[in-house]
Amino acid sequence: MSCEDQSQPDYHKKEKHHKHMEHLGKLGAVAAGAYALHEKHKAKKDPENAHHHKIKQEIATTIAIGSVGFAIHEKHEKKDAKKEAKKQG
């Protein structure tokens, strides 16, 4: 390997990294969404602590939305890395 090869990023490796991070973002969205539904169910079953469960539900929903945004961001990063890999050959 020459010095020129070391200074250029490995776009295939970047693409793989972004794909992995995209999958983690999707997994986070699913997990947070499931937890939000769980808390919604608990709020109905436990009227004494319903407010507490509603707050947890809203937090989990917000986290799920953030995870979806992260997954979308990583998908675009993966697409850019793929384009750069094609340019490099």
From TrEMBL:
Disordered: annotated span: 1-20
Protein source organism: Rhynchospora breviuscula
Superkingdom of this protein's organism: Eukaryota
Pfam families reported for this sequence: ABA_WDS
Name the UniProt record assigns to this protein: Uncharacterized protein
Family as reported in the entry's similarity comment: Belongs to the abscisic acid and water stress-induced protein family.
